[in-house]
């Protein structure tokens, strides 16, 4: 195979008529190394196909084939379609033929390898809405009880001491859900930009809420500059008196402001240290924001005190020119954050591009790599980085290919959910389900897809009453997960 490497480099890609091929793939493992294995071994055949993909296609399409196949297939994605495309190409669309680079057996092996990736993508998809509120899971049966409805995009939830619930709606509305499922609007919400991915986002109670009635809201704060509308991620501190916010004050406003209307991040969580952790997305500007710690708050996790001041042990307090609130950097768009119930560690999830959504354990001063190292490729199919790991960069403990669009995050505590104890729950926006991750030694060892096609699942929380609550979008509904004996 190595003698054909020059011709294969012409465009370096397989089966894409939608992408440009203007970069040369870089081989990572010599193909001749495959000759040592037995060709009768099915495992060897798959490894051989994987190596051929990596060597001849990965430079243009990314080293992870599952990200490449997460696409619309213009000429079909059945085996015969793939074989035809690999062998004969589509010259007028920029796809060369590979009949001189691969023999027929190798072409079929590569097609089978790609089909495996397509099946992995397809397993997430569902076309039918659930016909019942009763769902069988691997360990128990769950009933979804409706707690509240009448919202559009419920983004965040917080549980009040009197068993009532606070819910933010991205449209800018803020609700109190009563014990009788009543929905009451709360006034005093700050002026915000309800556009794109922006609006009213997360909500969290002060650790001493029972005494001070203080809450914190994250939102997309707008301003007009030279006729252009700019916005950024901000955090508001306020007191909740009845159904009204008073004494409002911004305690965090991310810099720089941006014209873009996406990747605000915007989860809030209080650590066991009593400090407020804030996730901020890179606002779509990965070339400048996530890796810059001087004068730049975007693509970061921040750590502040409840009055907005900076803890003295923040990692960049003594770094000249650095933003002292920064706790981590190199993050893309973190939309889930929670506290490990045993260790107290901060866990977060963040959106990758096409492939490469991540789960990370937040550690002070660490660089999480975006966009230097990523498991995903760009939405247009071009490679962002040809490396997924690098020295000096903290790798995720888990990543998803294809992208599930993670949002919301919670550990299962208590004994109400048999077989789920200590599991990590994550909402999927893209595939509209709840993801259950089984953990061992901070690694995901197994996953289960729950409540398939229930709706874009924006948030998941473990409530003080020991039940799990989830929020889905359009129509906006809050569900309580009730185990059925």
Write the layout of secondary structure elements.
Elements lengths: L4 H4 L33 H15 L1 H4 L3 H4 L10 H10 L15 H19 L11 E3 L4 E11 L2 E6 L5 E5 L4 E4 L5 E3 L14 E6 L3 H4 L1 E12 L2 E14 L2 E10 L11 E6 L5 E5 L19 E5 L21 E4 L3 E7 L6 E6 L5 E6 L35 E3 L5 E6 L12 E5 L4 E8 L2 E8 L6 E6 L5 E5 L3 E9 L1
Antiparallel strand pairs: 1-2, 2-25, 3-4, 4-5, 5-6, 7-8, 8-9, 9-10, 11-12, 12-13, 13-14, 15-16, 16-17, 17-18, 19-20, 20-21, 21-22, 23-24, 24-25
Protein traits:
mainly beta, disordered N terminus, 5-stranded antiparallel sheet, 4-stranded antiparallel sheet, 485 residues, 7 helices
Architecture overview:
There is one protein chain. With 485 residues, the chain is mainly beta. Helices cover 12% and strands 34% of the residues. It has 7 helices and 25 strands. It has helices at 5-8, 42-56, 58-61, 65-68, 79-88, 104-122, 209-212, and strands at 134-136, 141-151, 154-159, 165-169, 174-177, 183-185, 200-205, 214-225, 228-241, 244-253, 265-270, 276-280, 300-304, 326-329, 333-339, 346-351, 357-362, 398-400, 406-411, 424-428, 433-440, 443-450, 457-462, 468-472, 476-484. Strands 1-2-25-24-23 form a 5-stranded antiparallel sheet, with no helix packed on it. Strands 3-4-5-6 form a 4-stranded antiparallel sheet, with no helix packed on it. The protein has a 4-stranded antiparallel sheet with strand order 7-8-9-10. Strand 8 (214-225) and strand 9 (228-241) form a beta hairpin. Helix 2 crosses helix 6 and helix 5 (79-88) packs across helix 6. It is globular, with a radius of gyration of 24 Å. The model is unreliable at 1-38 (pLDDT under 50).
